[in-house]
Amino acid sequence: MEHITLLIGIVIVTALVFDFTNGFHDTANAMATTISTGALKPKIAVAMSAVLNLVGAFLSVEVAKTISGGIIDETAGIRPEVIFAGLVGAIVWNLVTWLAGLPSSSSHALFGGLIGATLVAVGPSGVHGGAVVMKVLIPAVAAPIVAGLAATAATRLTYRLARNRAEEDTAKGYRAGQIASAALVSLAHGTNDAQKTMGVITLALITGGVVAPHADPPLWVITSAGLAIALGTYLGGWRIIRTMGKGITDIQPPQGFAAQTGAAATILASSHLGFALSTTQVCSGSVMGSGLGRKGGVVHWSTAGRMAAAWGLTLPAAGAVAAGAALLADQGDWGIATVAVLALAVCGAIWMASRRKPVDHTNVNEGPAAEPAGVVTTALQAVSPPPAGPVAAGASAIPSPAVAEARITDPVGAAPVIAAPVAAHPHEKRAERRAKAGSAAG
C-alpha cells in the first residue's frame, strides 16, 4: 500500500506539472491578439488571464468527469503507472511544440498520452473508441474550420460597420472589445483545461482505491489544478504568443476584436452542445479567419501549414512517447524511475535549447523573420491593390527611371518599404547628358 501511495503521489505531481505546461502553452489562446495589437501590455495581459483561468477552474467539474471516466475505461485495470506514462507523453510533446513556437493542443496531447499508454498496458478494451471519435477526432477537424468561418464573418462585419468612422474614433471601442473577449476566452479555458488535470488526478485516485469510481474531484484537487494552470499562464508562453500574434497574419485591432469574439462564441456554443473542442485550434482558426476577412489581409500559409501538421501529429506523437514510457514503467520500480529520469533529461534539454534565442515580454511583439510571398499571398495582393492617391499638378504619373524608387510590400502585409534606386538605362543616360549640354549652351 505504501508503494501505491507513493506512486499516486508521483502521478499527482506529474499531473500538476502537465497543468503548468498547459497554462504557459495555451496563454496565447486568449492573449496573443490582445498583446500584438497593443490593447494590453504583455505582463498585464498574462496576469489577467491567470486570474480568470483560476476562477474558471471552480465553475464546473463536468469535463473532469469526462476525463476520469469518458475516454479511458477506469474499470479495465488501469494502474497509476499507466497514467504516469500518459502524462509524460503529454508533457514532452507540449515542450517540443513550445520550443518550436507551434500552438498545438495540450488537450489532445493529454488524450494521446493516455490512449497510447492504455493501449500498451491494457489493450484496445481500455479505450472507449466511440468517445475518442465523438469527443476528440471530430471536434479536432471541425474546431478550426468553424472558428475560422466565424472570425472571417466577424472581421468583414466589423470593417463594414466602421467603414465611415475615423480610426481614432473606433480605437477605444476595439480595445475594450478585445479585453472583454480575451477575458471570456481565459475564463472558458480555465473551465475546460484545468478540469482535464482534475480528471487525471481523480482517475489516479480511483485506480489507487483512494476515492470511489465516478466520484467528483475533491476540493483540494480543484484548488491545486487551478493554481498550477494559473501559475503557468502568468509566466506566459511567449514563443507561442509571438506565433499567434505575429506569425499567422498581421493583426489590426478590428481583426483582434473579431478573432477573439469568434473564438469565444465558438467555445461557448460547443460547451453548450457538449463538444470538447481544443481551445488552441479554435483560437488559431479564428486568427487565420481574421486574416482572410480583412481586404488585403495576408495569411502566412507556411506557418499555418506547420501548425496543421503539429495538430495532426499531436495524438500519435504524444501516444508514441507515452507507449514507450508505459513499456518501461510496467517493468517495476526501476522502470518508473527510468521514465522519470529520462523525462527530466528531455525537459532539461528542451529548456536549455530555448535559452539560445529567448523570447519574453520584452521582445514578444518583434515578430518572426519575414517569409517569402507564396502563391496565395501573391493572389491576395493582386486582387487588393493599394488605393490610388492624387497626383500633384504637373507631375508625371510615372517617375523618371533615373530617380525612381521601387516600392515593394513585405510578405506580412506591412507598410511599403523603400528599395534601392532603379538604375537608368544607358540610352536614357545619354539623353540626359545631351539635355544638360544643350541647357548649358543656351
Attribute tags:
single chain, mainly alpha, 2 domains, two-stranded antiparallel ribbon, 70% helix, 2% strand
Structure characterization notes:
This protein is mostly helical and 442 residues long. It folds into 2 domains: 2-354, no CATH class; 399-441, no CATH class. 70% of the residues lie in helices and 2% in strands. It has helices at 2-36, 42-56, 62-71, 80-99, 106-121, 129-161, 167-207, 219-235, 238-247, 253-273, 279-293, 301-329, 333-354, 375-383, 426-441; strands at residues 405-408, 417-421. A two-stranded antiparallel sheet has the order 1-2. Helix 6 packs parallel to helix 11 (279-293). It is globular and about 85 Å long. It starts with a helix and ends with a helix.
Q: How many extended strands?
A: 2
Structural class: mainly alpha
Number of discrete helical segments: 15
Q: What's the overall geometry?
A: globular
- Summarize the biggest pleated sheet: 2 strands, antiparallel
Helix content: 55-70%
Rg estimate, integer Å? 26 Å
Uncertain stretches of 5 or more adjacent residues: 369-425
For this entry, what is the oligomeric state of its chains?
single chain
Q: Termini separation (Å)?
A: 110 Å
